[in-house]
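Data deposition worksheet. Section B asks for the primary sequence of the deposited chain exactly as it was used as input, without tags or linkers unless they were present during the calculation. Section C holds the resulting structure in token form. Section D is free text for depositor observations; keep each observation to a single sentence. Incomplete worksheets are returned to the depositor.
Section A, Depositor: J.P.
Section B:
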Amino acid sequence: MKDIIILGIESSCDETSVAVVKNGREVLSNVIHSQIKIHEEYGGVVPEIASRCHTEVMNQIMKQALKEAKITLEEIHAIAVTQGPGLVGALLVGVSYGKGLSFACQKPLIAVNHIAGHIAANFLTHPDLKPPFLCLIISGGHTHLVNVKNYEDYEILGKTRDDAIGEAFDKVARVVGLGYPGGPKIDEMAKSGTPNIPLPTTHLEGFDFSFSGIKTAVINLNHKTPDLDKADLCASFQQAVTEMLIFNTKKAIQKYKVDKIVLAGGVSRNSYIRKEMDKMANELKVKAYYPEPILCTDNAAMIAAQGYYDYMAGKKADLHLNAVPNLKLM
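Section C:
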């Protein structure tokens, strides 16, 4: 079978990335330009600054990705670009660039759902992984529990009713004084703490999540008792939100009789969440999969990987393609 080479473009938030992926499984290059240092001083992503930074570096990142992959645009079969969800201005930079490249090179254009891309990141780390499986998507903007029936067929079993888990991590980190990005900093600080502070957990009917209660509890506790040990507070928060993730995931595994649980999204880098998921997987005798750390956060390789399956399914966009900041998985 002929190899299919997809060029992926990702600009949904504060990472500018271009990647080249072969057959949806092999990364030939994955160049990522992060804006974390720029946004750190503001305590979070500033949309206007993110868009401007994408514009400034996109062409350079694309050339570097082709150079590292040792490939030319003529050898690319299609161009996959993140259509949404994400920040509208940031998305528009990638979509516009992808459309221009598609027109100039006369290559098919593929609109990729960012959430589906996070799921597909696992195919790059685990070339033997195939649907069906259960996927827990945990990121700054999303918390989804998804029954992945096939590469193009998803059933959302549950999602957050308020804050995404990554958003809760960031807000707690800001209050505690750790700054941005909150997830990795809480993960690191929690390693020196003890989870000895009682915090409320929320369990809803079905498989939905809610993190606003625990976020508010941590914020109030920090204000009322400012001398609390910050490491203990981080460890307690991390343990409590992980317990909520495990609770719903375990219920879904038992109900749907799956033998594989897959994690995706930036928060899936969290060392404590991975450790607890491994414990649960061993207990239920299922196999747990995680992307390698560089593929957990936003990157173009995951977009190219999902773009491959969209391409093989015959899904193509035209030059009227627009960014959809609130794009749904289903």
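Section D:
The beta strands are 5-10, 15-22, 26-34, 78-84, 109-113, 133-138, 143-150, 153-159, 260-264, 287-289.
The two ends are 31 Å apart (CA to CA).
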